[in-house]
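Suppose you are handed a protein chain with no further information: no name, no annotation, nothing but its sequence. What can you learn? This example shows the usual starting point.
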Amino acid sequence: MNNQENKNRNERRQARKEGHLDNHAFLKVADRFIDVANDENQNVLATELQMAFLYAAARYNAHVAKNVLNVEDQEDFVKEMSKHYQEMLRNHLADPQV
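A reasonable first move is to predict its three-dimensional structure. Written in structure tokens, the prediction is:
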């Protein structure tokens, strides 16, 4: 392993310690949420469960906007988050493995 690879690995580890997610860590966190959904889906209809997860995401994002980011223009925040959701949803719908 060369010095640059070592430096990059150390930077990623430090970022994770500080609570930041690189692509790999991001996907691992997302997979944990999906695992919760799959477990709940054993007893709850998927159509009910999807709305509960959407509600939870909206609730958590509102908390972050108001209490962490101190968003002043809530409507701009809603538009930005909606844009991200639409892009993610379209990408997953186009994925033949989903």
